[in-house]
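Input:
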Amino acid sequence: MRGYASILLLILVAVALPIIILNLSRLLRPSWPSAAKYATYECGIVTTNEAREKFSVRYYLVAVMFLVFDVETVFLMPWAIQMKELAVFGFIELGLFLFLLLFGYGYIWSKGALTWE
Amino acid sequence: MFITFALITLLGALGMLLQKNVVVAGLCMVAAFFGVAGLFVLLANPVAAALQIIVYTGAIMVLVLFVIMMLNSHEEEAGAARPVQRWLSLALIAVLAFAAVKLVLASAGLNALAVKGAEMPQAMTLQKVGTTLFADHLLGFEVAGLVLLAAMIGAVALTKRNL
Amino acid sequence: MTGFAQGLLDALLKDTHLITPQLFLMVTATLMLWPGDLFFHRNEKHKWAPITLVILAVTAALIGRTPDGEGFSRMFRMDGLTRGFQMLCVLGTAATVALSVKLLNGLKQQTVEYYALILFSLSGMLFLCGASDLISMYFSLELMAICIYILVAYLRERSTSVEAGVKYFLLGAFSSGILVYGISLLYGAAGGTTTNLADLNRALALTPTTSNLLVFSGVLMVLMGMAFKVAAVPFHMWSPDAYEGAPTPITMFMATAPKAAALAAFLRVFGAGLHGVSSEWVLPLCYIAGASMILGNVTAVKQESMKRLLAYSSIAHVGYMLLGVLSGDPRAGAQAVWLYMLIYIVMNTGAFAVVIYLQGKGEGERIEDFKGLGRKHPVLAFAMMIFLLSLAGIPPLAGFFGKFYLFKLAIEQGFVTLTTIALLTSAVGAYYYLGVVAQMYFREPDGEPAAPMGATSVFVVTVACALVLVATACGPWLVDWAAKITWV
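Output:
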């Protein structure tokens, strides 16, 4: 467990920092609210609609591609560590795996799914 | 430590279920995933913890948030249509939880633990994962590649306008 | 190179021949997608169907040539059971591809993805038939299922298709979760060393009685996950909706090939694998089988859609086939289930081919549409009658042989109550099958005859009808032949 102390510290700092900063500024700043100050853009641009806009389904493909290649890196990690020991065997195996995925990538590309239609 | 992570997981899961605002519910899910990652670390399995964070809080959450943004439902959902179902499901959950606790208490491992005392399990390392993954589970590894390929094709087939 | 890697490489080269059919499917399906697809213009994609059929024929030949053996750290096992059920999967897939052509042409939905996904799914099934380890069973199941989720939602302009796909996917993902949880419980109960079925069986049989609950919940969860895949009651909820919404050839696909593969897994996991802890799963499986027979047959009576009727009837047929899994003799069980599945696939293919033939542009699948078919298309109606009577198990048709053989086995193994239920529900089954026959022959046709379509459908109907009749004629010979195969 000892090795995790630094990670724990990092998490604690990451959580504490915004809390401290926000509260500190709340304490220090003067507070005279007015309607104009509560507008989304204080600089004077009038908001036209909500920020939560409907996403296009086209992002879906991007999201799935991200997921697939994210999982792929997960599989690459143990191979990279065991590369020396697995030698040619691991290379063949991973080559096949990567071939399948890169093939999928090429397929998506050739279908024109990467172009924004 | 265990209690902390277990609480984070449980509260995250509960928050996800009870929260009416879907975006907040999604963020509660992230908290639950982090809690699970912490539990993995406590089980001396940092690999699983890292994967939990990379895959779930990274990739899966992107998809979940994407779906939330795409559906973009501002209306808050009405309560369960039939209260009977709610009560039934609560009763079922109670029974299941009771059974799960009983299962753990009755398991041989816990008895052995009470006799021998806890011992630290050997930590799971990436080296070990690499060896088992590429030697014993090689078939599964390649089929996983195939599953990912099929998923990509499926995504294209279901969303691309003109194939 | 280290000795470790050299050893692995040798093992790999030694084992690869066990999965040549799957490798062949993988390579051809990927080549079809790219660069194969570049050679065909947008409106000649239908040419992929005959190419797929050729690929399937080669796969069948390769399966026939693959020798027996076990490999890949005992993850995959090739034996009579594997080969037999792999052949059934290829048969069901080939029928699906043959029936897809005209329908997809009519809908202008011909794509290479459709055929490639079917082939990917098939390779998952081929792995599943031979999975001798819970892990390999799980991932082959996923490969098979993910492709089918997509195929169910394939007609994405049609809301029923998408709805069916989403329903099937959500419930399927949930059941996979239960399955994996069950596997992990079994893994833990056996000491956390193995997921290989034979080792697991040995280890679980030795576990102390204190951890019985753990073994029981693990076995039960694996059972639940797998029962979902074959749509056995009470895990059948998805099947009528998915069957109704999916494109009809895919409905037929779901009713045949994946079912054969999942039953092979059932036979391997429960029939041949975990018999050491059979006290844990026999009773739940009995309930599942009995409930499937009763609910499948009784609910089918009230259906108005032909596809839903066939969905409920397939639930009932799965109930019958689970009798073979229950039998304490894995060899006889495998043989009986295989025979039943073979006949079931042929009859079902025929019945679905008729539905597709009448379906025209994708509508008109109600039972009422069969009204007066005997007058409009006497030959087609005759074929449909053969299929339905055979599905009902009326002697002397082929369906009767399958049932007779299975029930005989169940009686011999002492499942008298369950067999009685099976016999009674078969009678209920005959009622609704005959109801369709009555619609065809004793009701006057009304309105315009639906635009019939497809020379391929006619061909499939003819072949299936001929096969059912041939199987009827040489039933005993077929049984003798199946008995000669070394199953497990």
